[in-house]
């Protein structure tokens, strides 16, 4: 196995081994908002792609037995003294249930695009077909673990190919992929795993198109790939759509003419927008239902428009007050933000990401200052969109802060994972690599990457086991 292949295969081995463990170690509904993601994934697996409206509320008819399954596991949420056990696991996994009795429910993911639940629902469907000879085998636990498996495999495929095709930062992608927060999200039913996987794969694709000298021409195949990414990205998380502006990293000499360069960007950029508009027009899901917080949103938007400089201060103040929370929930505050890692680990892992971004460079690949300005502009744009969207949708609700609140409430560190590389690449420099001491540090640190990655996965496993499975009863 040559040197360039080691990183992606290391990721493949670690993510399969530990990801499969996390699927079963993490009890049901113990990843943030997993209950709502599970509802949507189950419904999509049964081809219920769109919600219904009843009494002015969007929702769906959902099996009562699955509601009971979810409710029976909420006792663990934010209650570190409560534990899961083998008897409960066996009951969730193997006790047959009836799915005929259904109740109309409202839930936060009812209007979410079904595309975000394709891997989870597809695996649920496959397992259902494999157990068709005995319907009793499709227990609530079986549905949940099947959804987690589908999500994990899709995420692994995305990151594996991202490492494989990227001409730079293979080790950085590896570390982001096995980071505690990332891999546990991927091993859940949450769509965050899909969002992170596709975003990182898209960034790696732009790196390849821009910096791989073996790719001489950006032709029809490459643009079709980017158009598919655009369609997926806008439906997954529209705030990450500015990632598409990485297109301007690609040298113009890889296009036949300047007109070809501009047209291909237009095709890519508007393919996602057109597909999203078609989705809105065909589903009518963006018509506000009774009880929606549209009044709060419009009032908050008015505040932002009339007080733009104050809102800039709101964002800056948010980072000042919540930087520690953002860092923790970026790297490793698992579950419902109730399973933190030792802060020393958080700091060291963050430092490692920064150091790798500085020293793990290719001497033959230069990233110009104007390219770094593009990276910086995209990163700032996404951060502002992220903070603004939560300020409108979540902070505006009076119980969460209200109109004109002094900081943004609702943003978590995991929302920064999909575009973290865009910020870190601003540290890329070929100048330091010519220094002997930097080269020596680089060589030693890169040799330690496999050990660090294994240790990180083992520590994550240890923390999950003691959090959810080991009793806090005092030793006699």
From TrEMBL:
Keywords: Membrane, Transmembrane, Transmembrane helix. It holds the Pfam family DUF2142. The chain crosses the membrane at residues 12-32, 145-163, 168-187, 193-211, 223-250, 265-289, 301-320, 340-361, 373-394, 414-433, 445-470. InterPro entries: DUF2142_membrane (IPR018674). This is DUF2142 domain-containing protein. It comes from Paenibacillus nasutitermitis.
């Amino acid at each position: 196995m040559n040197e360039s292949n080691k990183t992606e295969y290391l990721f493949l081995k670690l993510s399969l081994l530990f990801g499969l463990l996390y699927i079963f170690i993490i009890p049901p509904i113990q990843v943030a908002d997993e209950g709502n993601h599970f509802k949507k994934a189950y419904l999509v697996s049964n081809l219920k792609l769109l919600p219904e409206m009843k009494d002015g509320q969007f929702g769906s008819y959902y099996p009562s037995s699955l509601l009971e399954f979810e409710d029976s596991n909420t006792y663990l949420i934010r209650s570190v003294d409560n534990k899961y056990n083998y008897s409960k696991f066996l009951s969730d996994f193997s006790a047959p249930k009836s799915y005929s009795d259904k109740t109309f429910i409202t839930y936060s993911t009812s209007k979410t695009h079904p595309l975000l639940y394709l891997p989870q629902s597809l695996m649920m469907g496959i397992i259902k077909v494999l157990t068709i000879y005995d319907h009793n085998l499709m227990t609530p636990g079986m549905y949940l673990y099947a959804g987690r498996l589908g999500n994990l495999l899709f995420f692994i495929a995305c990151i594996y190919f991202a490492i494989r095709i990227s001409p730079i930062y293979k080790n950085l992608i590896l570390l982001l992929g096995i980071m505690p927060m990332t891999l546990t999200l991927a091993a859940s039913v949450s769509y965050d795993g899909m969002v992170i996987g596709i975003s990182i794969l898209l960034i790696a694709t732009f790196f390849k198109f821009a910096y791989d000298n073996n790719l001489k021409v950006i032709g029809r195949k490459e643009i079709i790939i980017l158009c598919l990414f655009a369609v997926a990205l806008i439906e997954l998380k529209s705030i990450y759509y500015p990632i598409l502006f990485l297109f301007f990293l690609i040298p113009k000499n890889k296009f036949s003419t300047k007109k070809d360069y501009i047209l291909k960007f237009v095709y890519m950029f508007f393919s996602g927008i057109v597909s999203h508009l078609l989705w809105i027009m065909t589903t009518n899901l963006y018509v506000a239902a009774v009880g929606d917080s549209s009044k709060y949103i419009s009032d908050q938007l008015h505040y932002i428009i009339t007080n733009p400089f104050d809102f800039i201060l709101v964002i800056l103040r948010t980072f000042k007050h919540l930087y520690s929370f953002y860092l923790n929930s970026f790297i490793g505050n698992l579950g419902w933000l109730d399973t933190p890692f030792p802060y020393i680990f958080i700091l060291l892992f963050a430092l490692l990401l920064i150091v790798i971004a500085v020293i793990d460079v290719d001497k033959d690949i230069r990233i110009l200052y104007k390219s770094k300005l593009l990276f910086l502009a995209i990163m700032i744009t996404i951060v502002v969109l992220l903070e603004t969207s939560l300020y409108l949708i979540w902070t505006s609700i009076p119980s969460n802060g209200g109109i004109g609140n002094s900081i943004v409430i609702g943003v978590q560190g995991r929302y920064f994972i999909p575009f973290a590389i865009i910020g870190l690449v601003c540290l890329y420099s070929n100048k330091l690599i010519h220094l002997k001491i930097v080269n020596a540090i680089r060589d030693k640190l890169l040799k330690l990457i496999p050990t660090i990655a294994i240790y990180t996965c083992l520590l994550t496993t240890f923390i999950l086991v003691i959090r959810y499975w080991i009793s806090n009863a005092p030793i006699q």
